[in-house]
Amino acid sequence: MLIIAFFFITNYLTSWSHPWFIYPTFAVIWWPLSLYFAGNKNFKAFSVAGSILISVFFILVNVITSPGYFWCIYPIFAVLWWPLSMILRGAKQYKFYSIIMSILTIGFFLIVNLISSSNTIWFFYPSFTVILWPLSIYFAREKYIKLYSVIMSLIFAGFLIMINYIYAPNDIWWTYTVFYFIWWPIVMLLGDKAKTTAFAMISALVIIAYYISQYIILTPGEHPWYLYIILPVMWWPVTTYFKRVRHTRMFLSASMFVCVLYYSILNYILCPGYLWVIYLFYAVSWVVMDMYFTRRERCFAYSLWASGVTIIFFALVNYLNTPNHIWAVYPSFAIVWWPLSYYFFKVKGKEIARVGGKGG
């Protein structure tokens, strides 16, 4: 109290036009507040008293410095989490805690929306994600997991319908997303039946038919983009059928071979003017090299092959995209350091150590 009186008198005598004494006063009050509540180990009461003190401080600063803009809600919103977390989580009221904090957060976004940009209603975007918290706390458990999938699918679909109605009522685009939200509860409700090859085959055919229909309705006569989706979708029933061997290197090798062959044919038929399949080749080559060299612990050979493949890849990309500007030498220079470093610091280093050991 003596220190606060000193700051008040000094402020009054020197520059009363701006009551700056509230800044050191806030820090000074924290001293007896901490001693009283923390000393008695009454941490919940301390969180309540401390949050009230901080909120009052920011309100005073807001009113004194910039009364035209109510910015103090931002720190006050953060401060309120402290006592609410101490009281509700301390009592292990996790479900009730998620509801209260979600309501608080949504209210905060609504106030900020009205204060900062009342002409544009945007608060429901972050509020939608906040609602998922208490719903997940209540329903994301094993005995409610099927009901959870239904509820969440309905909420996501409803949210998109609302966005569509607000911003583009003449273009009903939400119908394109319904397929994805229907599929999740169907799979969950079927349970073990969804793991069968028959279900995977039916699902794959339905998905392919859906994309083909979307192509016919939305982009008829244009580039047949649905063909790129067919192989990944059909590989679902294939992996289900070969579930006993799908974890083996042989199945992985066969999968990569089919993938490269399929997309190479698509590249040749649909885009013969640009060899885009080299990007897929490059990715697959790393998997092949990793399987072969790491299994045999041939790290130096791995670095040589990987560097060579990467340099060839950059050279092809350079040639296909910008043949008049030779830029592939720059990444190639950096890549060459890998096998060189490995050779001189590992291979050569071991030889020197072995010779030195014999000499000793």
List the helices and strands and how they pair.
Blueprint lengths: L1 H13 L7 H18 L3 H23 L7 H18 L3 H23 L7 H16 L5 H23 L10 H13 L6 H22 L8 H15 L7 H22 L6 H20 L2 H23 L7 H31 L1
Helix pairs in contact: 1-2, 2-3, 3-4, 4-5, 5-6, 6-7, 7-8, 9-10, 11-12, 12-13, 13-14
Q: What does this entry look like structurally?
A:
The chain starts with a helix and ends with a helix. It has a domain at 280-360. The radius of gyration is 33 Å and the shape is extended. The chain is built from 14 helices and no strands. The longest helix has 31 residues, at 329-359. It has 360 residues and is mostly helical. α1 runs antiparallel to α2 (22-39), α3 (43-65) packs antiparallel against α4 and α5 packs antiparallel against α6 (124-139).
Question: What tags apply to this protein structure?
Answer:
single chain; 360 residues; mainly alpha; 14 helices; 78% helix; extended
Summarize the model shown.
The protein has 360 residues and is mainly alpha-helical. Helix content is 78%, strand content 0%. It starts with a helix and ends with a helix.
Distance between the termini: 79 Å
Mass-distribution shape: extended
What is the number of strand segments?
A: 0
Mean pLDDT: 86
Secondary-structure-derived class:
mainly alpha
H/E topology pattern: HHHHHHHHHHHHHH
Instruction: Please outline the major beta sheet.
Output: none
Q: Radius of gyration over alpha carbons?
A: 33 Å
Beta-strand share of residues: under 5%
Number of helices: 14
Model regions low in confidence, pLDDT < 50 over at least 5 residues: none
Specify the helix fraction band. over 70%
